[in-house]
Amino acid sequence: MNRHRAHFLLFMLSLILACLLQLMPLPDLLLPFRPYWLGLILIYWALEEPERIGLGRAFLLGLVGDVLQGDLLGDQALRLAALAFIVLRFRSRLRFFPMWQQSLAVFALLLNDRVLSLMERTFTGDPLPPLSFWYAPVAGMLAWPWVFLLLDDLRARLRVHEA
């Protein structure tokens, strides 16, 4: 398998896994702590291989997430496009942060995602979400080092296998 095909396969498998993790049933007690997996994977690929993730692909990934979760069509698409824009804009700085600073930056990005979601809910007339609505960015911040290290290790193994 050539290098480009292997990297593309890893990219696609990570997106499919993120979609599956978004759909995975959890007990009601743990549901507010589910990280935004699509956002975390998008952040990783935008940091490491920005040519794979642009605003258009982020928007399409969001549309897939909307369809899978039955959300308002365009809700996640708008949020993921905004997330991709911010990450791509500040990629040169974020990439070289130590892991703890990257985790804090991911927390800020996921918090911004929640604010956009809250604005969308307000515009559509939905009631304000409970306090547990704000737990997911914290869970995403805690999951970020593991997501980053896992995907980085898989990419490194692909590079070693190619050599």
UniProtKB/TrEMBL annotation:
The keyword Disulfide bond does not apply. It holds the Pfam family MreD. It is a multi-pass membrane protein. Its main location: membrane. Keywords: Cell inner membrane, Cell membrane, Cell shape, Membrane, Transmembrane, Transmembrane helix. The chain crosses the membrane at residues 7-24, 131-151. InterPro entries: Cell_shape_determining_MreD (IPR007227), MreD_proteobac (IPR026034). It is found in: Cell inner membrane; Cell membrane. Belongs to the MreD family. Involved in formation of the rod shape of the cell. May also contribute to regulation of formation of penicillin-binding proteins. This is Rod shape-determining protein MreD. It comes from Tahibacter harae. The gene is mreD.
